[in-house]
Design a protein that fits this description.
Elements lengths: L1 H23 L9 H23 L3 H22 L3 H23 L5 H20 L1 H27 L2
Helix pairs in contact: 1-4, 1-6, 2-3, 2-4, 2-5, 3-5, 3-6
């Protein structure tokens, strides 16, 4: 079951790459700081991974909240930044790698205090992003709503399988 869950999340990474490419076609704003994008991607992956573990343990509401925070914060930066395709692909790999890291830690019983502190720290960082980009999120949320909903539903479907 754990191996299947890990394989399903690899599929999620592929889906996320496809979804991210759809988002960048609409992003035409000036280039922004890629360090911030990479850090947001890392935190979004950690928060999504933690939410996926919660979902796997039967707490769908926690998963929904984690996905809302992670995607809203991350996609607000993507839409605002005008990043190159290469920058977005790297950020997507970071997001997927951190999502896998949390799932792997759970599956291997290595989910420890350090990982917990990282998750809490990421929630804080994403919350700051939500506050800083509130106007973008409010005015442009329809641009990524379908993408976010599709991704959340795909993750849920994968978690329910097996």
């Amino acid at each position: 079951m754990r191996i299947q869950l890990f394989q399903e999340f690899r599929m999620l990474r592929l889906l996320a790459k496809i979804a991210l490419l759809a988002v960048i076609t609409g992003a035409t704003v000036a280039k922004a700081d890629t360090d911030k994008l990479d850090n947001l991607a890392a935190c979004a992956g950690v928060v999504l991974g933690n939410g996926a573990v919660d979902f796997y343990l039967g707490d769908e509401a926690s998963f929904d909240a984690a996905a809302e925070v992670a995607y809203s914060a991350y996609l607000a930066e993507v839409i605002s930044g005008g990043f190159s395709q290469n920058d977005l692909q790297i950020a997507d790999q970071i997001l997927g790698g951190n999502l896998d890291k949390v799932i792997t830690a759970y599956n291997s019983e290595a989910f420890d205090n350090d990982l917990y502190e990282e998750i809490v720290s990421c929630y804080r960082q994403l919350s700051i992003q939500l506050i800083e980009r509130a106007e973008v999120i409010s005015s442009r949320k329809d641009e990524w709503k379908d993408l976010k909903d599709m991704s959340v539903n795909t993750i849920k479907r994968m978690l329910k399988a097996g």
